[in-house]
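Sat 14:20. Reprocessing the chain from the morning session after the first attempt stalled halfway. Input below, unchanged.
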Amino acid sequence: MSGTYDDIAPLRGSDQEDERRPTARGQVPITVVEPEGNARGGIVVLHESRQTTGALRDLMNALAVEGWTVVAPDLFHRLDGEPGAGVFGDELFDDFDACFDWLTRRGVFPDTIGVLGFDSAGTAAFLVATNRPIGAAVSVAARGIVEPLTEQADALVRAAPKLQAPWLGLFGEDDPATPPADVEQLRDATARADVASLVVTYPGLHHRADSPGDDDTDAADSQTRIFDWFDSNLR
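Finished this time. Tokens:
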């Protein structure tokens, strides 16, 4: 099937009673965008909203045009989840694993699955790459670089040595949530990991491939870098 549709991804072990997540109902709602023809791999897109924005959906469609099956989970499907608060810890990994399994059941090879996230979901994508042997990861404006966002999210500079997948980080120099000095610390920390990493900074706030402005060449460049990163590492 090609096109865009909603589906559900079962949580691992959801056929058994799990007192840790009594409201999860054993499944994660997902939005899927599939390419025409055979998929070359899969991209799990983490985002902070209960609904995908128009710009984010355009990015997902563009990834599908490139041949990727794109899966965006509703990270706030649990009754006590609040958008904007971020989903980390076991719940994040449970939801990612559900998307990962959904893709592999449809014939996608594990080493051709990547993860992409923005803002605190970019932090989540980074942490997924430190805990799961995926093919590649991209974070845009990932927060919590030096100080953790929550008790369930390690600071990125501390988690960086555990990266298991090639990681690309995109940042804006004027983003108050990611000060340049913090970004430089992250650049140094990820350079010491056992996998490839690349940190790119853009002037001002021109680093958002999910919300480009009119004639925004930097946003176009950031989208190109995202696509090239997955092209180079998911194979």
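Residues 16-24 have pLDDT under 50 and may be disordered.
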